[in-house]
Amino acid sequence: MAGTAPKAQVWFMLEYTPRWGHKAWEESSIDPAVRAAVDEQLKQIPGARLLLIRQKDRAATLRFFAAVLGDEPRLYKFELDNYEELPVLDLVSIVAGAEQYQASLTDEQVLLVCTNGQRDACCVLHGVAVYNTLHGQLGHTVWESSHHGGHRFAANLLAFPSGRSYGRLGASNALGIVQRIVDGEVPAQYCRGYTAWAEPAQAAELLLRQQLGLQQEGGLRLLDSQPAGEARWRVRFEGADGERELTVERVEGAPVHASCGDEKTTPTVEYRVVDSSADEHDKSI
After folding, report:
1. Are residues 15 and 144 in the same domain?
2. Do both 30 and 112 map to the same domain?
3. What is the pTM (predicted TM-score) of this model?
4. Is-contact 152 162, C-beta < 8 A?
5. Could you give the dihedral angle defined by the CA atoms of residues 196, 15, 180 and 156, in that order, rounded to the nearest 10 degrees?
6. How many domains does the chain have?
7. Do both 1 and 118 map to the same domain?
8. Of 34, 38, 145, 255, which cross-links 112 as Cys (Cβ 3.0–4.6 Å)?
9. Are the CB atoms for 86 and 117 separated by under 8 Å?
10. DSSP state, 83?
11. 267 and 144, same structural domain?
């Protein structure tokens, strides 16, 4: 799974409880004028994505979150009385870290389980059971969400403010994995990657974590990622003990079905370390 995380530098999450369509935001019943105003703002924010979220047994005001990723990820929480208030928020200024929105910063954790069955059957088949299990234990930290990407890794989970994507969660293992995430760990065997980075950097970081035995969140900062030949990239990180450099190679494997109920197949992908300043042994993930 390493190097398969959906990519976005900024994630917006809007509470919307009615049924989600194949294109959840576009097909929602929210006033088209509101959606158009929000879409216009999103166009001004590189690498931004908007998800719809919902939660059992919630009432009162609407929740809206903004996760801004980077070296120091930030998570904002807003309470809205109605959707017409959404375009009033200056999303560009939020991303820029404007002083007027500092009071909305939160240290909460937000965990999103994709359950959008209209987009792909895998998501509802596996996601609903995982959501029910996690919500039953962790309560309002956990939300259902519209589609992240990567149907065949369902159940998929996005964790904020860390910005990491996880896959292949099931009702039997989800609570243990998510408890580690909540405690600040990175369960590498289930992690698809850090969503703010391109795929080779996502995989390289997880491989480096494996080599260093680094389990806690943080500790590595991406410095650079450059092509280094056909299907190879040289990736540099800064850690507590200085710089680390890896050359990773992308290798395609046997084809698998891309999603539930889909006849289309795509090759599996594996990233291997072919050269490393951290460990001279060739490893793969």
Report:
1. yes
2. yes
3. 0.92
4. no
5. -70
6. 2
7. yes
8. 145
9. no
10. G
11. no
Whether residue 38 contacts residue 87, with contact meaning beta carbons closer than 8 Å, is answered with yes
pLDDT 10s digit of each residue in the chain, 285 long? 899 999 999 999 999 999 999 999 999 999 999 999 999 999 999 999 999 999 987 777 899 999 999 989 999 999 999 999 999 999 999 999 999 999 999 999 999 999 986 666 677 778 999 999 999 999 999 999 999 888 788 899 999 999 999 999 999 999 999 999 999 999 999 999 999 999 999 999 999 999 999 999 999 999 999 999 999 999 999 998 899 999 999 998 777 766 666 667 777 889 999 987 755 433 444
Neighbour-count burial of 126, counting CB atoms closer than 10 A to its CB (0-12 exposed, 13-18 middle, 19+ buried): buried
Angle, CA 141 vertex, CA 126 and CA 106 arms, to 5° = 140
Instruction: Give 3-state DSSP helix, strand, coil % of the chain, rounded to 5.
Output: 30, 35, 40
Q: Are 179 and 239 in a shared domain? A: no
